[in-house]
Amino acid sequence: MEGARRVPAGIDPNVPSVARMYDYYLGGKDNFAADREAAEKIIALGREVGGDAREIARENRGFLRRAVRLLARSGIGQFIDIGAGLPTQENVHQVAERHIADPRVVYVDNDPVVLNHARALLADNRTTIAVSGDLREPKAIFDDPAVRAHIDFTRPFAVLMVAVLHFVSDDEEAARIVDQVRERLVPGSHLVLTHAYQGTRDEAAVSCGKQVYSGTSAGGVATRDLSHLESYFAGLDLLKPGIVPVQAWRPEVPWDVPVDFTGFGILGAVGCVI
Ligand SMILES: C[S@@+](CC[C@H](N)C(=O)[O-])C[C@H]1O[C@@H](n2cnc3c(N)ncnc32)[C@H](O)[C@@H]1O
Q1: Would the pLDDT of 5 be above 70?
Q2: Which domains, and CATH codes, for the chain?
Q3: pLDDT at 34
Q4: Whole-prediction pTM value?
Q5: pLDDT above 50: residue 155
Q6: Above 80 in pLDDT, residue 132?
């Protein structure tokens, strides 16, 4: 995606977008030079501490796929994916429809490029829609007429906030957002959430990474610890294995590496309203 002719209206290609950086980590082509430059800085910082931003993005995506598969297999047929990201392989609706008939999926994002691509992908899809919405305003998302027409809020549904809440820098605001989401969940509903954490080992590199993200469309990124994650799932029944690094959450191949909270990573969990 390059050249003035291909830049959608309302987009400044010189400001790195967290959606397009993530697309770059995942090997996608929907990104501009500024996105790639910022993403390469993060990749280099990761290398300094023996990590790989691309691998972390893939592991996060793997968690999302496994969580959706588990929920669809257990009969959940409605998904609201907030901060859905640019369409990639194995999007929520594609994973879900392999396991449950006619899943209803709403993709929500505040990035116009994400919405353009999602709407193009979904042009012929009756059961999946994409809407513009801001994670900071969960009430507006749930009350959006298109969302209300698509999701039956009297039946169990899943809300996904995967690798998005950390773009809300203020702790109180993040807690308020999750509270407002939890309030809407009816029994049998699920919250699927992943979030960046940092431990103490990679402090210097993470601090440089935060500098890079402060110049992006999101305006910054926050890491949070286990206790924050626990509070987001307050009152919910955590599915096994609880809150763990995403790669350790129900891995497809046995993952016998001890769970390590000392370095940078992404924590993930799924909670259910009982
Ligand atoms: C790192 S990507 C994650 C994509 C996908 N959830 C995943 O984990 O594979 C973060 C996404 O959240 C979106 N995003 C960031 N801040 C947001 C906000 N305040 N409201 C809605 N979407 C937001 C970005 O545009 C981007 O598409």
Answers
A1: no
A2: 18-251+261-272 (3.40.50.150)
A3: 98
A4: 0.96
A5: yes
A6: yes
CA of 238 to the centre of ligand 1 (A): 23
Please tell me if the CB atom of residue 196 comes closer than 6 angstroms to any atom of ligand 1: no
Q: Distance, CA 155 to ligand 1 centroid (Å)?
A: 26
Q: Is 162 in the pocket of ligand 1 (CB under 6 A)?
A: yes
How far, in Å, is the centroid of ligand 1 from the Cα of 256?
30
Single-letter amino acid code for the residue at 99:
H
Q: Transcribe the chain into DSSP letters.
A: --SGGGSPTT--TTS--HHHHHHHHTT-S---HHHHHHHHHHHHHHHHTT--HHHHHHHHHHHHHHHHHHHHHTT--EEEEET--S--SS-HHHHHTTTSSS-EEEEEES-HHHHHHHHHHTTT-SSEEEEE--TT-HHHHHH-HHHHHH--TTS--EEEEES-GGG---HHHHHHHHHHHHHHPPTT-EEEEEEEE-TTTTHHHHHHHHHHHHTSTT-------HHHHHHHTTTSEEPTT-SEEGGGSS-SS---SPP--SSSEEEEEEEE--
Structure confidence by residue, pLDDT tens digits, 190-216: 999 999 998 888 889 999 999 999 999
Which residue owns the Cα nearest ligand 1 atom 23?
Answer: 83
Residue 67 CB less than 6 A away from ligand 1:
no
- pLDDT on residue 6: 67
**Nearest CA residue ID for atom 9, ligand 1:** 61
Q: Which of 193, 206, 177 is nearest to 265 (CA)?
A: 206
Ligand 1: which residue has its CA nearest to atom 12?
A: 83
